[in-house]
Specification:
heterodimer, A: 406 residues, alpha/beta, Aspartate Aminotransferase, domain 1, Aspartate Aminotransferase, domain 2, seven-stranded mixed beta sheet, 38% helix, globular, B: 122 residues, alpha+beta, Sufe protein. Chain: A, three-stranded antiparallel beta sheet, 5 helices, 3 strands
Chain lengths: 406, 122
Amino acid sequence: MNLKIKKQFPIFSAKYKNLVYLDSAATSQKPQVVIKAEADWYRKLNANIHRGAYALAEEATLIYEQSRAVVANFIGAKSAKEIVFTSGTTEGINLVAQSWVKHNLKPGDTILITEMEHHANIVPWQLLSKEFGFKLKYWPIDNSGKLEMKNLSQLLTGVKFLSLTQVSNVLGTVNPVDKIIAIVKQKKIKVLIDAAQSVSHLNLNVAKMKPDFLVFSAHKMLGPTGVGVLYINLARHSEMQPYKSGGEMISEVSWQMAKFKKVPWLLEAGTQALAQVYGLSAAIKYLQNIGLVNIHKHTTSLTKYAYDELSKIKDLTIYGPKSSQRLGLVSFSAKSLHAHDLATMLDRQGIAVRAGHHCAMPLHHKLQVSATVRVSVSVYNSKIDIDKLVLALKSILKQWNKPTKD
Amino acid sequence: MEQTYKRLILRHYNNPSNKLALKKPTKVFSGANPFCGDKIEIQVKLNSAKKITAISWSGDGCVISQSSASIFTEMMIGKTLSAAQKITSAEFLKKLDIDLSPSRRKCALLPLFTIKEIIDED
């Protein structure tokens, strides 16, 4: 499947045609159909939406709202009204913090997040807790990089809001979010799911999962940068307060006051990333064309292959759970060589990997490693890429570990 | 191995200069690279004329940051602290003379930024 697919990504036929791209967890590459859709918006459809009584603006509005329906269908939402366009995962989380959490929690209430969150799902809660007197508590992970599922009732005491990632961007751990949501719902805890890492790898179904909020970015799922999605369960709609304020989110404005539109439009102030929303809907159609089930099969087997092959290299330590419990990525460190040096040396051989703390400094502190190398895969990767990586790693480490170095 | 990891750099990495603790430092600087989480501490001993008479450093990190700290501290002996803090990034990188991408430049500049008490390019 993948060699034919790789041809559909123009970046692999230009300057970087021989690139082994293993950093899709940071951002994915874009297929021609997505690039074309963005350009098509400007070529054929561009007008500002929700205003303008002329055919072009009407068509632009229709297409924008159709994209909302495409997203709703993609994640199994009951209604297109549950879909808010944001600038990405980070903004989605900040929006929930500002428009819901701070209005619905009282000082002393607890916000629970996990030890495997990305900074985007840590810092907004730190700032909010400091400002409004909420407690911030961490759900611990065990030695294998999975959430500790013991003593849950103690952990959940006092908790009013839980924000957690579906798939860890460092460990690759797949959290049992359906099960977790079912448990915390009984305690009336509201939940936000960060689906940034999972959305391009598995079939999301929010109607079944039942989160209150769910966020993801388009750019990690073959779509454009600058746009993302916030799903808000209909049950929360009447509790949402304005986020950014200005044009398009109001129904009526007088000198001293304003009346607001309903969700989702309440939360989409100003002119939105119109071309990017159109690009996102093209990315979704592209993913659906390949089939999420096929993609899941492909990336899971590739992740397993990478995990198995990297495990054979003696000098490496791999972080996180075994290959059957992870999705899309493998992080590791080498005994003798810092992650950044390793990444630089791999880069010289045309292999792009991520090195660092992957925006998860507290987690790296817990793992007692300053930086790791992360290898992540997408639809356009194949075993050939992993073989090249493993070969390069072996030769780098062999040369590096040679005894005579002055 | 290649341009970035040439002999001089590797010599400093494997056998760093001034990587020991001073008994009574006059001043201690700590720095961190937010890009990778590497941390470094530099201790200096100053005489009455504010000249650096002894210097030491500690930290863990990549080959570039470690060898850079070794080379940087060697350069500092005999300089006044204020002269040391006036060294520009370009001057120091020229001295190191290695081929670095923009992100890796931060690794090399960590000791300089630390003594200048800045976290990024001035």
